[in-house]
Amino acid sequence: MVRIYTKEEIDKIARSGAVLARTMAVLKKEVAIGVTLKHLDDVAREYIRNEGGEPAFLNYQPGGAEHPYMASICTSINEIVVHGFPTDRTIKVGDVLKVDCGVLLDGMYSDSAFTVIAGKGTQKAQNLVKATHKALEEAIKAIRPGAHIGDIGYAVEYVAKRSGVSVVQGLTGHGVGYGLHEDPYVYNYGNKGEGLLLKPGMVFAIEPMLCTGRGQVKQLKDESWAMVDKGLSAQFEHTIAITETGVKILTSL
Ligand code: MF3
Ligand code: CO
């Protein structure tokens, strides 16, 4: 079931999203060569709690998972796409680091992610990160009442193709609000005009994930998802709401 949120509910999700946006801004500043992933996790947890929220990923146990997730952020490097665990590994020159975080505030979840390259990075890495950021922008531009969910995937795929990178297969965005993961799946590929009709009040986490290789992923023992061909991957994510007239980003400053 795809929920339709009221204006009041969307305002609440926006407040959760505002805390998350500020958390992400703080995390971006903390990213530096030599810093541990665990440090970023500590900063996120403390910042969110200080704002009166709770880290949404901490103790989260999706159906099928063997144990709850024991951190507040996911830190996924290079060929790891998502769900990388913030260990005491340090950030190294050239790392393509994805930081994914969620906030629970006043009963509402928000979800967001960004990618940064530590240091300058190769041309290939820069192109990938730029393309993935563009894919999120274009996906959001495709969203308005009367559009279809396939338009979102089409936009992501179009940017990927034009940039010479691939869409990561099998990992998707999702509805978000009362739950961290709600219906529908928001695919990063699709056809214009196909799939769910977008209506005011729907709230989605849009999360394009692109890669330099062929797009196949597998889950590792630590439950992170990695590119099978060890190519680089990037991800950007915003929580958005569909309004009467268009779209509102709920996780930007
Ligand atoms: N943003 C991640 C996703 O949409 C959520 C990870 S939840 C975790 O898949 F608890 F597993 F980290
Ligand atoms: Co998400």
Automatic annotation (TrEMBL):
GO cellular component: cytosol
GO-annotated molecular function: initiator methionyl aminopeptidase activity; metal ion binding; metalloaminopeptidase activity
InterPro entries named in the record: Creatinase/aminopeptidase-like (IPR036005), Pept_M24 (IPR000994), Pept_M24_MAP (IPR001714), Pept_M24A_MAP1 (IPR002467)
Positions with a binding annotation for substrate: H83, H181
UniProt keyword Metal-binding, yes or no: yes
Cofactor note: Binds 2 divalent metal cations per subunit. Has a high-affinity and a low affinity metal-binding site. The true nature of the physiological cofactor is under debate. The enzyme is active with cobalt, zinc, manganese or divalent iron ions. Most likely, methionine aminopeptidases function as mononuclear Fe(2+)-metalloproteases under physiological conditions, and the catalytically relevant metal-binding site has been assigned to the histidine-containing high-affinity site.
Residue span, Peptidase M24 domain: 13-244
Chain sites annotated for binding a divalent metal cation 1: D100, D111, E237
EC id: 3.4.11.18
Catalysed reactions listed for this entry: Release of N-terminal amino acids, preferentially methionine, from peptides and arylamides
Domain of life: Bacteria
Annotated Gene3D superfamilies: Creatinase/methionine aminopeptidase superfamily
Job description of the protein: Removes the N-terminal methionine from nascent proteins. The N-terminal methionine is often cleaved when the second residue in the primary sequence is small and uncharged (Met-Ala-, Cys, Gly, Pro, Ser, Thr, or Val). Requires deformylation of the N(alpha)-formylated initiator methionine before it can be hydrolyzed.
Record text on subunit structure and interactions: Monomer.
Annotated protein name in UniProt: Methionine aminopeptidase
Species of the source: Candidatus Wolfebacteria bacterium GW2011_GWA2_47_9b
Taxonomy of the source species: Bacteria, Candidatus Wolfeibacteriota
Gene that this polypeptide is encoded by: map
